[in-house]
Structure to design on (73 residues):
């Protein structure tokens, strides 16, 4: 929502030069933002794996397989 209001303000009040500069900055930092998103996702997965190992939590697929194996016994 905040981004939309910022964009409408930019369109209403900024000069073409300001818009071009903002666009250039956005594209220049695009790869950095992508790298940060990927790093954040990698850390999230690592933390999730650690949490699951620490608490002994199985994935839902593993739980189903484990239950099917116990039913056959």
């Amino acid at each position: 929502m905040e981004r939309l209001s910022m964009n409408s303000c930019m369109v209403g009040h900024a000069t073409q030069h300001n818009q071009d500069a903002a666009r250039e900055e956005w594209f220049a930092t695009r790869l950095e933002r992508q790298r940060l998103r990927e790093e954040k996702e990698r850390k999230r997965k690592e933390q999730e794996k650690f949490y699951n190992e620490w608490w002994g939590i199985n994935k839902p697929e593993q739980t189903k397989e484990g239950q099917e194996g116990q039913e056959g016994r």
In short: Residues 66 and 73 are 11 Å apart (CA to CA). The chain has a mean pLDDT of 83.
